[in-house]
Design goal:
With 256 residues, this protein is α/β, with parallel strands linked by helices. It folds into 2 domains: 18-145, Rossmann fold (3-Layer(aba) Sandwich); 156-251, Orthogonal Bundle (Arc Repressor Mutant, subunit A). 40% of the residues lie in helices and 18% in strands. The strands form 3 sheets. It has a 5-stranded parallel β-sheet with strand order 2-1-3-4-5, sandwiched between helices. It is globular and about 55 Å long. The relative contact order is 0.09.
Length: 256
């Protein structure tokens, strides 16, 4: 029956490369359900239940996956540490935390250590799959951008009295030296590369957080407040990191 064979024909041909997704989740029934749903969408899924095993795999095979779905409370090393270690090793694979930890400080810490998405359990399957598609799309766009002719790498910049080293994630002032988180430095670098230009919240979500522009989050505002505390002499009257109500943000390298 040709009609039936057409109905059940796989979405991907053998010549097409399936997106590779790592799911790190110790709740077995949930993990199997997630794998089934992702495989139904024609994704190639690897399932791991232990944090130590997941971290070892990610560090030994840094380019093995296109998206990582990561629980926080795991046997062995926890999800926060996995994400932090992955980012410290320069691995930029999109990461979505999938966790029952729903306090604002948990979500903030998740973004702080380098996550791109944070979805609380229990979750809506359609939303979960939409976020996966979004991360894959942004990952593809990033890969295409990386294939463009490389510009001069940004290594160090001075902001007021502070000197920023993008390689070591350090900020040096006459008083002290401190380390920025991976996401803080990524945001700062984006501002420096787009100095003096008005940048919308949606643009930051897409290019720094690698997430949907329509995502309802105050993460950009919170991170800009943190940058002000580091670089501004008076964070209540900023000169370098400016916010324009309902419009966006602007980095002024020479001060307002």
């Amino acid at each position: 029956m040709p009609f039936l064979s057409q109905m059940f024909e796989p979405m991907n041909t053998e010549s097409e490369k399936k997106p590779r997704i790592l799911v790190v989740e110790d709740e077995v029934n949930l993990a199997v359900g997630i794998r089934f749903s992702l495989e139904h969408e024609q994704y190639d899924v690897t399932l791991i239940h232990n944090g130590d095993e997941a971290l070892s795999l990610l560090l030994n095979e840094p380019g093995a996956f296109d998206v990582i779905v990561l629980d926080i409370m795991l046997p062995g090393v926890n999800g926060f540490t996995i994400c932090s270690q992955v980012r410290e090793h320069g691995i930029l694979t999109p990461i979505m935390f999938l966790s029952a930890k729903t306090l604002p400080e948990d979500k903030t810490h998740g973004f702080d250590v380098g996550a791109n998405q944070y979805l609380a359990k229990p979750f809506d399957l359609d939303e979960f799959l939409a976020r996966i598609r979004n991360m894959l799309k942004l990952q593809q766009l990033q890969s295409e951008k990386e294939q463009e002719p490389a510009s001069e790498p940004l290594e160090e910049v001075r902001i007021g009295k502070a000197t920023v080293n993008f390689n070591t994630l350090e900020v040096r002032t006459p008083e002290k030296t401190q380390n920025l988180t991976f996401l803080e430095m990524t945001l700062l670098k984006y501002f420096v590369q787009n100095a003096n230009r008005l940048i919308s919240k949606e643009e930051l979500l897409e290019n720094v957080w690698k997430t949907s522009a329509g995502m309802n989050t105050r993460a950009p505002d919170q991170f800009i407040l943190r940058l002000r505390k580091i670089f501004e002499e008076d964070s209540t009257h900023p000169r370098y990191f400016l916010t324009y109500r309902n419009a966006g943000y602007r980095f002024m390298p020479d001060g307002e």
